[in-house]
Design goal:
Layout lengths: L6 E2 L7 H4 L4 E5 L3 H10 L5 E6 L2 H9 L3 E4 L3 E2 L1 H6 L2 E4 L9 H13 L5 E7 L10 E2 L10 H14 L6 E6 L1 E3 L6 H6 L3 E4 L7 E3 H13 L6 E4 L7 H12 L5 E4 L7 H6 L5 E2 L2 H7 L8 H10 L3
Parallel strand pairs: 1-5, 2-3, 2-6, 3-4, 6-7, 7-9, 8-15, 9-13, 10-12, 11-14
Helix pairs in contact: 2-8, 9-12
């Protein structure tokens, strides 16, 4: 069966004189974090082009002021020609980075005129450190296949000459619609305990403010860890959510005895505390939610 001919976005390019004045973000994999950034940029007059795999989600993006593009059906080369900034949230797979697989040459050609490129990676690239601290200078020693794919993808993006690349290594993301309250209310939450296990986290609004700060103060080649100030055991987060709701503590289950999906169990293969000092010192970030307690209180206040 022949490959379907790529569809072109409707009028994605603007005249040269308008394009010079308009900041345009092309967002590959326009999901949770990208949408939080969009909420900050649109009021400033930005044009946002965001990709999605779903026609239904495309209409949601359109309602939010984003120009949607179906990925991978749409031909995004015209959008690349009009973009001043790129954000890549799409995850790599066994075949590598999906954006570079199709658009490496177009991105390399666009590199000299791009003002900023952001790649959303993960703190999983550091692997397991038995609860010890890591920072951006820590060697990359991933202990999972997903982590290794991220290391490879980072290297692939870094290999493009002249690209104003910024890598953001994200800890566990939470925010509206992605908190623990629903499971606690339903009685399905468990406090899974593995001695010495700690995770770092980051509220989606803090991701958005870091990305915005980097866009305003670009430093090509920079790598930033995005996390809050309080790495904590996962059972403490679930317990605090129950306290906020005034509900009994969920059942405590030993990690070795817990029934978990292979994906969920793999997260417990790594324990580390992630330093966020660089975003504070270089970008002047003051976290909106410096720990999970303040973040969960805020989610509950808006009815999450």
């Amino acid at each position: 069966m022949g490959q379907a001919k790529p569809r072109r976005l409707a009028n994605p390019c603007r005249p040269r004189h308008v394009r010079a004045m308009t900041q345009t973000l092309l967002s590959f994999g326009h999901g949770f974090s990208a949408r939080a950034l969009t909420a900050r940029l649109l009021p400033q007059g930005w044009q946002i082009i965001g990709t999605t795999r779903s026609a239904d989600k495309a209409e949601v993006l359109r309602s939010e002021g984003v120009t949607p593009a179906l990925w991978p059906e749409d031909d995004l080369r015209p959008a690349l020609a009009s973009a001043t900034h790129l954000l890549i949230s799409a995850a790599p797979d066994a075949a590598g980075d999906p954006v570079l697989a199709r658009y490496r040459d177009a991105i390399a050609e666009a590199a000299p005129r791009l003002a900023w490129v952001g790649y959303l990676s993960t703190t999983g690239v550091y692997g397991d450190h038995a609860g010890g601290w890591v920072d951006e200078a820590t060697p990359l020693t991933p202990s999972t296949r997903r982590g290794q794919m991220r290391v490879d993808a980072e290297a692939d993006w870094q290999a493009i000459p002249g690209l104003p690349l910024h890598i953001f290594r994200l800890a566990g993301i939470y925010g509206p619609g992605r908190g623990p309250f629903e499971k606690v209310r339903q009685g399905t939450a468990r406090r899974i305990v593995k001695p010495g296990q700690v995770f770092s986290r980051i509220h989606v609004e803090d991701i958005a403010q870091v990305l915005e700060a980097s866009i305003k103060h670009p430093n090509p080649g920079a790598v930033y860890n995005l996390c809050d100030d309080d790495p904590a055991p996962p059972q403490d987060v679930i317990g605090h959510a129950a306290d906020l709701l005034g509900l009994p503590l969920p059942e405590e289950v030993a990690f070795d005895e817990a029934e978990m999906t292979p994906m969920a169990r793999s997260f417990y293969a790594e324990s580390k505390r992630v330093s966020n000092r660089r975003i504070k010192e270089e970008l002047g970030i003051k976290l909106i939610y410096p720990d999970y307690r303040s973040g969960l209180r805020a989610l509950l206040a808006v009815g999450d």
